[in-house]
Each structure stands twice: as structure tokens, then as C-alpha cells.
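R.M. (postdoc): so does anyone remember the format we settled on? I'll just put the C-alpha cells first.
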């Protein structure tokens, strides 16, 4: 069901729209969490370290998929907000074609370059073979990752956040079962979790494409929409390319940090691998709520209802803080037991490493979540320069501090870099938001 985000009380509209998105990303994160859980429990610490090590490289591909999602979603949202349905269809078709070309190029890069990347980040010999095996299988599933993300962006742009949630919930639950089947029953170890993700993501992608096609077919036009448009690709690229660059540089930064962590051995790698999955569950969830706010902003920006953009920011801030409270408490109180989900033993250096990481970073979820909301508004309005400045500042600080603090404080110094980068990035993002074109928009009472 398509939904107009330009009418209704903003807080109520955002809760109804963003909660399914929040649920969707929880299930999407379950793919990798399930992989780590199964190999950590049923294979061993080195296998867990290998999956976690590979995960940092998969984030490069996810960054490109995320950029395609945002570029398509923001432009489609604006056109949906202005009722320009012919152009909206052209934007969708153009996005799908461009995504296919980009995905093919990245698959070639992955096939030829993953081994080099693993060596670049100082992957220990004992986890090298499993890391490469996981990545080799993952690369062949990139079309599923990319087209599913674009489909999710299309649904969100038309105000439908529930359909992708249903797909992800079903496929994520199935993925857990297939993980266990392949690893336990078929003794496939790391390859088993990689193939399970490949199969389940593939089914989700095909279903999403079918439903998108049906949804678009239901929008009748007097004239057939163009299948591809270079000007439209340019409009999409203005949003997508900065998002891709931002996410890619973040991924590269994470790879650099992973390289530093790898120097402390498999136990620290395994502990970080478990804890960062839990951390990314929160960060990616908040980013997804930010994406929902981007859709809200884009529709209202297209309809020139700038006062609703301000209302949306305030509502989004209250929303993410409400979500942060139970998550921070959970990680502080039950962090050891959550990290233990990925381990065979509740004691040891790996578990201690994961618990310390969560204790240091989780209180600052209140800070980084506000950055996500402000970034969502900036993206939805197309203010990409400010968005990138804030993000790169955060990244550069985190990487630089991780390198500097790891010398006197060892691995603890690396974890301390997160809060500092988040705090400064949040201050910049909120400052840019306050200077936006809506700053003098008058408040209005909604029907």
C-alpha cells in the first residue's frame, strides 16, 4: 500500500512508517548475526574470526547497495510527493538498469580483488582460508543484495515500509534454519553459512522484484514512461554518489580499523566480531530510521511543506531516543551473555573484549542516533555536501584515534575512538540541519 507522508501528524506518521523499517533492518542484520552465531557455536573461534573479518570487506559492497537504495528512494519520494508518476516510473526503471551495471562491475572486482584485500588488512594465516571462502560465495550473491536494496528504496519512497519487512522477516528466519542445517547436518562449516545467506537473500530479492513490478503496473498513465533517462540518472546520481562515497569511505575506515585489530590476534578479533555485530545492529537500525526520515523529508520537500521537515526532525529525535533506552540498558546489563551467544565459553579474552567494547560505545547511542536523524533530513533535502563533511569528519577522527590510541591503550584505545568521532559528527550534522532552508518555515497545524 502506497502512503502519502505529506499529510497527518508527523510523529504519528513517522512511527507508523519507520517501525516496519526498523524491524526490517533487525531481520536484515540477523543474516550476518546468524552466520556468526552458528560458526561461533558449532565450528569454533577461528571460524567466528574469519566471518567477522570478511564482514568488514562485505561492507564495501553493502555501501554501494545502500547508495543505490538512497538515490532511487529520495528521487522517487520527491516525484511521488509531487504526483509526477510518469517521471517516478522512469526513475525506478533507470535505477534498476544502472544498479545492474554497477553490480556487474563490483562482482568482477570482488572475484579478482578480495584475496588482495584480505592480505591488505593483515588477515592471520589461521583464518585466511575461511575468510576467502566466505567472500567468494558472498560475491556471487551481490545481484540479490543490490536489487533487493533498490526494491526496498522504491517501497519506502511510496510510503510502504511493511512489504519489505514481511520479506525480510521470512527470509531471515529461514536463514537461521538453513545455517544450522548446512553447518550441523551437512558439515559445511563457513561455506554453509555463506550458501545459506546466498539462497535466502535470493528468494527475498526475486519476491521483491515481482511485487515492485506489480505495484508499478497498478499506477496507470496516459503515456508510457521512458525506460531509461540520462537526465534522470544524473538526478539520482547527485544523491546516490555522495551516499556511496560516504558509505564506502566508512567501510574503508572500518577495514583499516579491522587491520589494527587483527594485530592483536584471533581472540580479540573474535570478541570484536561478536560485539560489532551487536553494535551494528543498533547503528544500522538507526541509519534505517534515518532513511525513513529521508523519505519523509523528500516527500514534504517536494510538496514544499518545509514546516513539516522541522516537525519531522523533532519527532525523529524523540523516536530514536525512545529506541535507544532499552538497547543501551540491554547491552550494559546483559552484554556478557549477548557476546556469549557467539562463543563456546562465557569466560576468556574474546568474551571480555566484546563486553568492554559494548560498555564503552553503547552509552553514546543517544549521541549518534541524533546524527542519524539530522543526516536523514539533509539527505532527503539533497544537501549532500554538508552530509558528507559531517560523516567524513567522524570517520577520519575514528580511524586516526584508533591508530593513535591503540599504541598506549592497546585494543581498548580502538574502542574509545568511536564515541569521540560520533560526538563531533553529531555536532556538525545538527549544525548543518539548523542552517537548512526550513529554518524560518512557519509552523502549521495539521489536519
Amino acid at each position: 500500500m502506497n502512503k502519502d507522508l505529506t499529510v497527518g501528524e508527523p510523529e504519528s506518521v513517522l512511527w507508523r512508517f519507520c517501525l516496519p523499517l526498523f524491524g526490517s533492518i533487525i531481520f536484515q542484520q540477523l543474516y550476518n548475526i546468524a552466520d556468526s552465531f552458528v560458526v561461533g557455536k558449532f565450528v569454533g573461534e577461528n571460524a567466528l574470526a574469519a566471518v567477522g573479518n570478511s564482514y568488514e570487506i562485505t561492507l564495501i559492497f553493502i555501501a554501494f547497495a545502500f547508495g543505490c537504495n538512497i538515490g532511487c528512494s529520495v528521487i522517487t519520494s520527491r516525484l511521488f510527493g509531487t504526483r509526477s508518476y510518469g517521471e517516478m516510473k522512469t526513475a525506478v526503471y533507470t535505477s534498476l538498469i544502472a544498479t545492474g551495471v554497477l553490480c556487474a562491475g563490483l562482482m568482477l572486482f570482488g572475484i579478482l580483488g578480495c584475496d588482495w584485500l584480505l592480505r591488505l588488512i593483515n588477515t592471520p594465516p589461521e583464518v585466511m582460508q575461511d575468510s576467502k571462502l566466505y567472500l567468494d560465495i558472498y560475491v556471487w550473491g551481490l545481484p540479490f543484495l543490490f536489487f533487493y536494496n533498490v526494491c526496498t528504496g522504491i517501497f519506502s519512497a511510496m510510503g510502504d515500509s511493511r512489504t519489505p519487512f514481511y520479506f525480510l522477516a521470512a527470509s531471515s528466519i529461514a536463514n537461521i534454519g538453513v545455517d544450522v542445517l548446512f553447518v550441523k547436518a551437512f558439515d559445511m562449516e563457513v561455506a554453509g553459512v555463506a550458501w545459506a545467506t546466498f539462497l535466502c537473500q535470493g528468494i527475498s530479492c526475486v519476491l521483491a522484484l515481482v511485487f515492485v513490478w506489480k505495484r508499478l503496473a497498478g499506477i496507470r498513465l496516459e503515456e508510457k514512461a521512458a525506460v531509461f533517462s540520462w537526465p534522470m540518472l544524473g538526478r539520482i546520481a547527485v544523491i546516490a554518489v555522495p551516499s556511496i562515497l560516504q558509505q564506502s569511505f566508512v567501510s574503508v575506515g572500518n577495514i583499516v580499523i579491522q587491520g589494527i585489530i587483527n594485530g592483536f590476534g584471533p581472540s580479540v578479533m573474535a570478541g570484536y566480531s561478536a560485539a560489532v555485530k551487536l553494535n551494528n545492529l543498533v547503528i544500522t537500525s538507526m541509519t534505517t530510521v534515518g532513511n525513513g526520515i529521508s523519505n519523509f523529508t523528500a516527500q514534504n520537500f517536494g510538496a514544499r511543506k518545509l514546516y513539516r521537515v522541522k516537525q519531522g526532525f523533532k519527532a525523529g529525535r524523540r523516536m530514536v531516543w525512545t529506541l535507544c533506552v532499552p538497547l543501551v540498558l540491554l547491552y550494559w546489563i546483559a552484554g556478557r551473555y549477548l557476546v556469549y551467544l557467539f562463543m563456546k565459553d562465557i569466560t576468556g579474552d574474546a568474551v571480555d573484549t566484546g563486553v568492554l567494547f559494548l560498555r564503552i560505545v553503547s552509552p553514546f547511542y543517544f549521541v549518534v542516533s541524533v546524527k542519524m536523524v539530522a543526516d536523514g533530513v539533509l539527505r532527503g533535502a539533497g544537501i549532500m555536501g554538508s552530509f558528507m563533511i559531517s560523516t567524513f569528519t567522524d570517520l577520519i577522527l575514528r580511524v586516526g584515534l584508533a591508530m593513535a590510541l591503540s599504541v598506549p591503550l592497546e585494543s581498548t584505545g580502538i574502542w574509545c575512538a568511536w564515541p569521540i568521532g560520533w560526538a563531533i559528527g553529531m555536532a556538525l550534522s545538527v549544525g548543518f540541519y539548523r542552517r537548512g532552508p526550513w529554518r524560518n518555515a512557519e509552523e502549521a497545524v495539521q489536519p
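R.M.: ...and that's the designed sequence above, right after the C-alpha cells. Also worth knowing: DSSP finds 14 helices and no strands in the chain. The CA atoms of residues 306 and 437 lie 8 Å apart.
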